[in-house]
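User: Fold both of these, please.

Assistant: Here is the first one.
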Amino acid sequence: MDYPVKALHYDIESNPSVLDYFKKNDVQMINTGLSAEQMLNETPDNIRKIILNMRQGMTHINFLLGAGCCLYLDTPVENIHAAITAAREITI
């Protein structure tokens, strides 16, 4: 998929230093989120907290929340709803 802006997709948990790259270069959007393993194994409350904390670390950055490349088929529906609810709580 092509984005109409320079976008960077990465795993914030594995490589938080990428935010430094973002700030020094002409990247206009970050696409990140929880890993498939986190979505499978975390509690809904922890998923919400992780997403809201993730966003707090990226002030003044366009942010697209995703869940890696895929989700496991047995990912609890409650966890997916928790991620959606957290995304809706984010204010710009």
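And the second sequence with its predicted structure:
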Amino acid sequence: MKKKLLIFSKYIAFAVSMIGALNWGIVGLFNFEIIRFFFGAESFLCKSIYIFTGICAIFCASFAVIDCQCENEYLSKFDK
């Protein structure tokens, strides 16, 4: 069960990180921030989304350094 939860959380973190990357790509190309447009420039929700996106990116980066063999070994610890 823990293994499935970890895999699911990795997919969610990856998706959120990609959406954040697309947002910053649009900022770079068009100088337009989608998150601020929808949620307000200085709103708590806007800041929360940016913080959550950063946490997801850190989570993804922590797993980017683990190759396939090490990942299978690491995930097998959660099968207990």
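DSSP finds four helices and no strands in the chain.
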